[in-house]
Amino acid sequence: MRAITAESLHRAMAINAVGPALLLKHFHALLPRKERGVFATLSARVGSIGDNRLGGWYGYRASKAALNQLLRTASIEIRRRRKLAICLALHPGTVHTNLSADFVAADKPGVFTPTQSAQKLLHVINQSTPEHNG
After folding, report:
1. 20-56 burial, b for 16+ CB within 10 Å, e for fewer?
2. Which of 100, 83, 113 is nearest to 45 (CA)?
3. What region does 93 belong to: left with phi over 0, alpha with psi -120 to 50, or beta?
4. What is the sign of the dihedral through the CA atoms of 67, 68, 74 and 75?
5. Contact (CB, 8 A) for 28 and 39
6. N or C: which end of the chain has fewer CB within 10 A?
């Protein structure tokens, strides 16, 4: 809690919520009106308010929660004109990267390589239906 600063909160929001929201603002019109189309963005499980059992990571958690709300809200609006549109906020799993290196060992069960995570994300995107919107 002592590490919270306005600068760190602004940065996390800019990267994790504002950036994807602006992409959605400009690209949602490219989703087909009468066919399936998908807008997907990377969120994170730590953005879940109900699933927060550890605390910490204030800016990152808040920015991912904000992203989830922005995407959910946009999915409702987009659905009015694009019945088959799908807006997804995806959790990539625990991926061995520089971000996670200090917290999770690469050989821990359930930790994915970036390639594995990308393959799983593409599978979810490809299998999604309009019922998964939002």
Report:
1. bbeebeeebeebeeeeebbbbbebbebbeeeeeeeee
2. 100
3. left
4. positive
5. yes
6. N
For 27-48, the pLDDT digits (tens) are 999 999 999 999 999 999 888 8
pTM: 0.88
Tokens of 110: 């359930």
Give helix 6-13 / helix 58-79 axis angle, nearest 10°: 30
Tokens matching residue 117: 């995570």
* Residue 56, token pair as written in the block: 């910490």
Q: Please report how the helices 19-27 and 58-79 are oriented relative to each other, as an axis angle in degrees rounded to 10.
A: 10
- Cβ proximity of 45 and 89 under 8 Å: no
3-state secondary structure the chain: CCCCCHHHHHHHHHHHHHHHHHHHHHHHHHCCCCCCEEEEEECCHHHCCCCCCCCCCHHHHHHHHHHHHHHHHHHHHHHCCCCCEEEEEECCCEECCCCCCCCCCCCCCCEECHHHHHHHHHHHHHHCCHHHCC
Give me 108's structure tokens: 């821990």
| Tens-digit pLDDT profile for residues 82-107 | 999 999 999 999 898 887 777 777 67
